[in-house]
Amino acid sequence: MGQIIDGKALSQVVKDEVKAEVPALEAKYGRKPCLAVIIVGENPASQVYVRNKVKAAAYTGMESRLFELPSDISEEALLQQIAILNDDPLTDGILVQLPLPGHIDEEKVIDAIAREKDVDGFHPLNVAGLWLGKDCIVPCTPAGIMRMLDSIGVELKGKNAVVVGRSNIVGKPVAKLLLDRNATVTIAHSRTGDLGEVCRSADVLVVAVGKAGLVTGDMIKPGAVVIDVGMNRNAEGKLCGDVDYASAEPVSSWITPVPGGVGPMTIAMLMKNTIACFLSHQKAY
Ligand code: GUN
Question: Among 53, 106, 169, 269, which residue has the most ligand 1 atoms within 8 Å of its CB, making it the best to mutate?
Fold first, then answer.
């Protein structure tokens, strides 16, 4: 029987850690950390995520600024908005919610965000820093996953960790973080020959592909820790993960639910990253 890793409860702990820090930062530096969030267009899922990010910032006592830009905004105008925020001494973190409309080059946008304000950890210099083992901003979802694993005290050294999915946002960075803890890491993906066999080798299984119910209980080693990053809507419109919870839960030792698992942790770690950017920003001035 899998015990639940309660992302909602743990994210509350993380947000309360940040909330406790903000008054001291304000007293020391004369202002609160400020996160700028940009959303382009009206993707309903993105709107929910962004609303929750702004709400979390308010909860922790930080400042936030929400920029809701029309879906037909030109790439140039978006880049201009980013340039203004890059130069604004009162803005510490800049987040552009992805995905962006097709006519905008996401890579260009990510590259345009000042590296030291990149709360997502998506900028090439932050990605390079992560892979070179330098102190840098770690993407929020992978950071949240590691915090969840730490919360259950699982030993990663020498264990087999399998990451299903190779995105820049989750798969690749979480694989590096698991490697940093001396896990033996395998990255599986859509072209993996026998996904079930690879998954069954995992003591820790992280699934981040965006395919509802892709991983079923028969693909899980008994006693494995299962982290489900998926956020899918099934035929009835219900939120569900990449892991088939009903068959996976009895086989696993620990498992994250969807919703209430990794999702809230992403937002909580964003608050931590905003503080980190604020502090490095203070040092720079
Ligand atoms: N879209 C899905 N996840 C994320 C994230 O962590 N950050 C941003 N900016 N966009 C996303």
Answer: 169
